[in-house]
Amino acid sequence: MKIETIAVHAGHAVDPATGAVASPIYLSTTFERDIEGTYSRGFMYTRNDNPNRQALERGVSMLEGGEAAAAFASGTGATMSILQALSPGDHVLAHVDAYYGTSRLIHEIFLRWGLEADFVDMSDPDAVRKALRPNTKLAWAETPSNPLLKIVDLAAVAEIVRGPGAIFVCDNTWAPVLQRPFDLGADLVLHSTTKYFGGHCDVLGGIVVAKTESEFFQRIRSIQYEGGAVPSPFDCWLILRGMRTLPWRMRAHSENALKIAEFLARHPKVKRVHYPGLESHPRHKTALKQMSASGGMLSLEVKDGYDAAMQVAAKTKVFIRATSLGGVESLIEHRASIEGPGTISPQGLLRLSIGLENADDLIEDLDRALG
Ligand SMILES: *Cc1c(COP(=O)(O)O)cnc(C)c1O
User: Fold this and answer.
1) Active-site residue, 90 included
2) Catalytic residue of the set 90, 153, 171, 235
């Protein structure tokens, strides 16, 4: 079946008891035992498993083409589980432009717990090759990356990290559906489902999808229910509901973003536009090869640095000044000031999450704000 059909039906079944077409939400934390003390209906306690979580995990695995998935209370909770499944002394190689929270997690928590880590620009496969060590157990790619929209050639990096037998993770939060990391050699896919899956800025969540049911994934699964950072049944229900329209939304987000990127690239107040759909992007060809559309995220650098960037963000009326991404409403954000000291975001950079408004209204809003 095609991706739109999978998105609508995966994880959904008409409720056999009532005929309800939309699935019920099972708020129950606990489930009845059989007289013999067993659990023949499959559920015991909601931290271990819950019908809504199971439906979400099955749905997202089918969508990504994986064998299994484990859902968490946030994207960061999902990231945490992957890092916790490693052991002290293991080496992690991560993309230098990975989500800020991911590098912070590695620096502030996991180095203390004995992981070793290096950050390299994974959009350069040679840099990945040089940074590999015999104890590299995990390679963490993110593409397009945050906030510079760097493109990692997933097939090329997968090939390189397979050498020492590292597990290859792709954070696919920014390009769900548009990019199929398992077809390109990834072992695990991570999503912050807070973003495009939820799609409406009203639910936090994260998920780890495994290409195959490996021993490493079993560790992640046990961290999920023993560690307890599980999503609520209602959150799972909302995320699965969001998934039903995901392929169509991604198409519309991408179409809008391309129009806006082209407009910004011509604007005299704009120094640079980072968007993989533009021919001027240094890895445009790689993006065309591995993505079916370029996604809804872009960033721009204004000519006059910090003050000019803050003024643009202050003047937009349709774009809302807020962090996060992937919702129906367009957001504008000055990354350097939200990331704080240690940021590698340029001071004149504004990140845009392009929503589902009419692109002409968004362009007019940015034109007015840029002055
Ligand atoms: C937001 C985000 C995360 C973290 O997800 P939360 O749900 O906020 O914990 C991880 N990776 C990427 C690429 C993100 O955009």
Assistant:
1) no
2) 171
